[in-house]
Amino acid sequence: MRAFDADAPTDEVARGLLGATLHRRLPDATLLSGRIVETEAYLGLRDDACHSFHGRRTARVAAMYLPAGHAYVYRIYGLHWCVNVVTGDGERPEAVLLRALMPLAGLERMRALRGGVPDDHRLCAGPARLTQALDIGAELDGHPLDRPPLWLEAGAPVPDADVAVGPRVGLSLRRASRDWPLRFWLREDRYVSRGR
C or N terminus of the chain, fewer CB within 10 Å? Predict the structure, then answer.
């Protein structure tokens, strides 16, 4: 079963991905998995916080112009990787940033990849921690998220009462879209990253 509706608006996809599972199969066949507990929507051409704002096209953002359901993986601050789910297409380059997971499988390997982090609730609490724990890097940019080694699986629907909505994290005060309510997370979930 597909984890999201490819034709849905990106903010609905971001909300709908809560409760889905992200799986990563490593080259040695180890399976790492986590339940998605936090996302952020990025609305393409009209969103000044989005990498494709005003139709920007560079090698870095090429995956955003792929059909919905591909991974968009990029490096921030020259140090950390982030993974997004592409939700639009060549005319609507939008994506959902996966911000946090509740680890489900492969926790020992995740701990090793994260340098021995002892607290399970911090393993994947933040986009850079998530990609480090699941060993996601540039080689997965543009990968279709319906097959190994990186794929999504639908989960049980999450009731609206369990979902919080607010502004995205870490955006500059100069961005007009800074306060748009495009961050979605599970209330009272200890695996969620720290917000503003």
Answer: N
